[in-house]
Design a protein that fits this description.
- The complex is a heterodimer of chains A (about 350) and B (about 300).
- Chain A is mainly α and about 350 residues long.
- Chain A contains 13 helices and no strands.
- Chain A is globular and about 80 Å long.
- In chain B, helix 6 packs antiparallel against helix 11 and helix 10 runs parallel beside helix 12.
- A two-stranded antiparallel sheet of chain B has the order 1-2.
- With about 300 residues, chain B is mainly alpha-helical.
- The chains are: A mainly alpha (about 350), B mainly alpha (about 300).
Chain lengths: ~350, ~300
């Protein structure tokens, strides 16, 4: 019965392994691990300000991107291009935000979110087309589109969207009306509410609707789904990827309208990849993604603290994220093996 | 007229120089994919190779850098093999995670070894090694045969890989493992072991590709400097239809796409440089559609399983 061990145990083991790897990595690279981890903690959860203005602010894009990863992965499609769709959304949101001066705020914010969502879906649509029409693996196409998106951002902020003085490689700030209200005395924006609503919505859709059932069926076994005669795996996968891209684009729109107010390169410190860890650690469960999103938001925020206080480059936490992903994968393998050996025993007994 | 010749020669030389790291990494990935393993960790292996080569070259000269790079590539591929082949976890996600982890680790090691905002690190690099005789060929001679030793190594690997994959018993066993592991195993082929060896070979070559990038092209290391070249290498394998000669042609195509930037500049034409930043990836996408779509290319049947 050990195969049905609690997902919490796996998650716990993965986090411990991730931290162990981080300590080891710091030691190998020649830093003081204890100083660094202390700084990480203070930067992430050490104070009310760190928690709200740093960790939760970073949790918002991670939750929404994590949901994006989960929608695709649940359908058995691997969207590794969250980063690119995030940037597509951010570019569109910035452009929209710069051009709606006189609008009433609710309309302005809705417009910004809408174009970001459409841009994210549009960005992944290219990969969907390549997959359905030409059979190109979505893994490779979404991955390659990340680099195209980064080039597009670089072009936008030195070309069409560049600030009026044309000195800095960043866009003009978006209009005041397009900016999200903040929690008083903090940098936390109201986009976090949207992230929570989206998580709940996705959970309802996946567990309570026909669409969600089809999606999960295709993810579990496309052949079985196809043989049933009621599900077209191609259609379902295509739509799952489009929704995944839409969510990732929205994450980019949220970041622009709630945090940065303008576009620049490296707006995302690799959120699109961290989101894969967020989603996998949550076992692709939308509600659990809220928790893992906050956890990884803390890791990202703590990484900044680590860089400030201990001189450890923030990018180091990517190593911990990698170990967390791999631990979850290995736990899955272990569970599968135990199921298989149980099936084997049953077969032997019945023979 | 003379100007055109100069620009053209420069274009060919740049094409070859830029394509070398891609060729090395893609040839390695080709061997792995023929054995049925798709390793998205090549990007990580390349990056690790790049950093190791910089550190090795800074301490003991460029050849030490090459050796260190191969070691680093092997190490990254060994991590991938342990998780994705020995334990049979999902190859795609494992590869992504390995690359992510390498980005983190190389960032940390680079900062602690060379200082935070250290100025462009100066390391001994490879000088061009002219091939006597062949370099005398007008126009193309200097472009093709005044390259670094690593470029020639990449070229030699093409027929070598062809011979190994299609003419040797081990190559046959390796391809059988990639097409149908079950059938290969029934014939006594040690499938898992071959896949691990093929992946390690891929990692070593990716590390070498990273070394080429540092020691024969850029001359320094920077964080995330491979910038997706490992992923391009995977696209090159598809575009080259899982064949060493095709891989060489595809690698040259990507080299040319990047070299176009310099050629246009030399001709006095200006285009936003971001166009060239994104161009290789766009070409890769379109090429993949063409290569896979017309059914001319077929991936090994057991790829990724």
């Amino acid at each position: 019965m050990r195969a049905e061990r609690s997902p919490l145990l796996t998650a716990g083991a993965a986090i411990v392994a991730g931290f162990g790897a981080l300590l080891l990595g710091l030691l190998i690279a020649g830093y003081d691990p204890l100083l660094a981890v202390g700084a990480l903690w203070r930067g992430a959860f050490g104070s009310r300000d760190a928690l709200i203005s740093a960790t939760l602010v970073r949790a918002v894009p991670l939750i929404v991107l994590g949901l994006a990863v989960a929608v695709a992965f649940r359908a058995g499609a691997l969207n590794i291009g969250g980063e690119g769709q995030f940037y597509a959304g951010a570019i569109a949101a910035t452009w929209m935000g710069m051009h709606l001066g006189g609008w009433p705020a609710p309309f302005a914010i809705t417009a910004v979110w809408l174009v970001a969502t459409v841009a994210g879906a549009g960005w992944i649509a290219f990969a969907v087309l390549l997959k359905l029409r030409f059979g190109v693996l979505e893994v490779i196409s979404t991955l390659l589109l990340n680099f195209v998106a980064e080039a597009a951002v670089s072009y936008a902020v030195t070309g069409p969207l560049q600030e009026a003085q044309r000195v800095y490689p960043q866009s003009e700030p978006i209009a005041e009306v397009a900016r999200l209200p903040l929690l008083p005395g903090s940098r936390l924006h109201s986009g976090i509410l949207l992230a929570l609503v989206l998580a709940a919505l996705l959970w309802l859709i996946l567990t309570r609707t026909v669409w969600g059932f089809r999606l999960r069926a295709v993810g579990l076994g496309p052949r079985a789904a196809w043989v049933s005669g009621r599900i077209s795996p191609q259609r379902v996968t295509g739509f799952a990827l489009l929704w995944s891209g839409a969510l990732a684009g929205l994450a980019g729109g949220l970041e622009v309208s709630g945090v940065s107010y303008s576009l620049y390169q490296n707006l995302s410190p690799g959120y699109g990849f961290t989101a894969i860890a967020v989603a996998l650690l949550a076992r692709l469960h939308p509600l659990a993604i809220v928790a893992t999103g906050v956890l990884f938001g803390g890791l990202e925020a703590g990484a900044q603290g680590m860089q400030r206080e201990a001189g450890v480059p923030a990018v180091t936490v990517a190593a911990a994220e990698a170990v967390i992903i791999i631990t979850v994968l290995l736990a899955d393998v272990l569970a599968r093996r135990q199921v298989r050996s149980r099936v084997d025993t049953l077969e032997r007994e019945s023979a | 007229m003379n100007d055109v010749a100069v620009i053209l020669a420069g274009f060919v030389a740049a094409t070859v120089r830029i394509s070398t790291p891609l060729l090395l990494a893609a040839t390695g990935e080709l061997v792995a994919e023929r054995a049925g393993v798709i390793n998205l960790g090549v990007e990580g292996a390349m990056l690790a190779g790049a950093l190791a080569s910089a550190m090795g070259a800074a301490t003991a000269g460029p050849w030490a850098g090459v050796l260190a790079a191969v070691g680093a590539g092997l190490l990254v591929a060994a991590c991938f093999s342990a998780v994705a082949i020995a334990a049979r976890a999902d190859q795609i996600i494992t590869g992504t995670a390995i690359t992510l982890g390498t980005i983190g680790l190389t960032g940390a090691i680079y900062r602690s070894a060379f200082g935070a905002a250290g100025p462009g690190l100066s390391i001994p690099t490879f000088a061009a090694l002219p091939v006597p005789g062949l370099r005398q060929i007008p126009l193309l001679g200097p472009a093709l045969f005044e390259q670094s030793a690593l470029t020639y190594l990449g070229w030699i690997l093409v027929p070598l890989a062809s011979w190994f994959l299609f003419r040797s018993w081990w190559g046959l066993a390796l391809r059988a493992s990639g097409e149908s592991a079950e059938a290969a195993r029934a014939n006594g082929v040690p499938v898992r072991r071959l896949q691990i060896l093929a992946t390690l070979c891929g990692g070593a070559l990716a590390g070498l590709g990273g070394a080429t990038l540092v020691l024969a092209q850029v001359g320094t290391f920077a964080e995330k400097m491979t910038a997706g070249r490992g992923f391009i290498a995977i696209a090159i394998v598809v575009l080259g239809r899982w064949h060493p000669r095709g891989v060489l042609a595809a690698a040259l195509l990507f080299g040319a796409a990047s070299a176009l930037q310099f050629a246009l500049q030399a001709m006095g034409l200006s285009a936003p440089y971001q166009l060239f930043l994104g161009l290789p990836y766009l070409i890769a996408l379109l090429a993949l559609a063409g290569a896979v779509g017309k059914g001319r290319a077929r991936a090994p049947a057991g790829l990724g399983r």
